[in-house]
Amino acid sequence: MFTHSVSIGRYFGIEVRIDPSWLVIAFLFGWSFYAQFQHVFPDLASTTNLLLSATSVLVFFGSVVLHELSHSVMARRLGIPVEGITLFLFGGVTKTRMEASKPRDEFLVAVVGPATSIAIAGVLWALVNWGSVLIQGPLAYALGYLGWLNLGLGLFNLLPGFPLDGGRVLRSILWATGGSLPRATRRAAGVGKLIAAIMIAVGLLSVFTGNLGGLWMAAIGWFLYQAAVAVDQDVVLKALLQEVRARDLMSPNLITIPWDATIRDAVDGYFLRYDHSAFPVVGRDQPGLITLRAVRQIPNDQWELREVWTATTSLDDACTVGPDTPMDKVMEKLREQEGEQDRVLVVDGDRILGIITPRDILRWVRRSEELGLAAVDAEL
Hints:
Elements: E1 6-11, E2 14-18, H1 22-40, H2 46-77, E3 82-88, E4 91-96, H3 103-130, H4 137-157, H5 165-178, H6 181-208, H7 214-241, H8 246-249, E5 257-258, H9 263-271, E6 278-282, E7 288-291, H10 292-296, E8 313-314, E9 320-321, H11 327-336, E10 344-348, E11 351-356, H12 358-370
Parallel strand pairs: 2-3, 5-6, 9-10
Antiparallel strand pairs: 1-2, 3-4, 6-7, 7-8, 10-11
Helix pairs in contact: 1-2, 2-3, 2-4, 3-4, 3-5, 5-6, 6-7
């Protein structure tokens, strides 16, 4: 996810990135601001309106960054590693390397975001009211309008449905009172799916009554619904795999490439023949891995000249686990490598025993369902 995002800097030690999809929502907000200002101030010059609208977009999305930074800073203070923040089509998301270990920590990380947005609204309104001598007319209106947007952002995120902040607050409360994080997550995700379904229905109804703005509400509802379903499925998957080890699920029949084969041999005999994006390289003291990404970085006119070992990643740099590693830990490894590697090597010392990909996990789950081994819903 967000594999094409671009970094715009680090703030409080946390990297902030922008996904290309953010440009769509930035344009839509800019167009909305322009239309709103033109409606309220019909005599406002077009150039002034454009400048005010562009500035309003930057201020609003700066507010979104502050919302996400509050999550990140709080998470880091509580010992939860933070990878960074990404702005995208539907707002912003903070990526952490692990979940909160206690309900209290989950509550604090979740609630600080909406609280920050509401606080920003208060600051903007204070500027309008207390700075009325200097801030007047369209500028005062824009700041007040941005205040309402931040209040709306904060209140919307407090809706008690996962994956919204309010859903995480609900999960922390259910977790604290019930003692089970998986059960709390599934219940919060269920509320999230209900809220998302209502948003989709209301949005589509608005479209049918002539309000095209309902499409945006329906789109947000669809995104939230898919996210809630994914969280629910993840809980079920972890429950299915909690007693499974890496050796039980790995693909052991590895197709290997000799270390002294040329890149041309690897392309023609392996990458074009098999549906794999990486192959173990053997024949030397230290085995390694060659990936399709590494091959793509080598100019075609060097394929006949270079040997495979020159483009091989050592096992120390690859994503590896031991044969007895629990599969929930393997899934965490895969999630950490999302966008970089789509595989985990199962190794025993310097020996590569097998490989695990998301496709292997999906195959195992489907086969377990076919054999009636995947009945975990009642336990959650």
